[in-house]
Amino acid sequence: MVAVISTTGLIEFAPLNELTIKQFQTTVNNKILGHINLFQIAKPYIKQGGSITFTSGYVAQHPMPGY
């Protein structure tokens, strides 16, 4: 059995209406596409009973303006 857990990813912090397209793309590329890429790499190694878990990190536990 193999288990993979990931909370990684770079997030650009700012109020949504102040984020530039580049900042928004950085967040999407890291937090969303990064997890999808990790899944694609890990899936051949996950056997029956194994798992891949994508979870939030600090920001989900400590919300603040601009997060």
Can you describe this structure in just a few lines?
The chain has 67 residues and is an alpha+beta fold. The chain has two helices and two strands.
The major β-sheet equals:
2 strands, parallel
SS content category: alpha+beta
Poorly predicted regions are none
**Mean pLDDT, all residues:** 84
Number of helices: 2
Series of H and E elements: EHEH
- Measured as a percent range, the helix fraction is 25-40%
Total beta strands:
2
Q: What does this entry look like structurally?
A:
This protein is of the alpha+beta class and 67 residues long. The chain has 2 helices and 2 strands. It has helices at 21-42, 58-61, and strands at 3-6, 51-54. Strands 1-2 form a two-stranded parallel ribbon. Strand 1, helix 1 (21-42) and strand 2 form a beta-alpha-beta unit. It starts with a strand and ends in a 6-residue tail after the last helix.
Key descriptive features of the protein:
67 residues, elongated, alpha+beta, single chain
Element layout with pairings:
Layout lengths: L2 E4 L14 H22 L8 E4 L3 H4 L6
Parallel strand pairs: 1-2
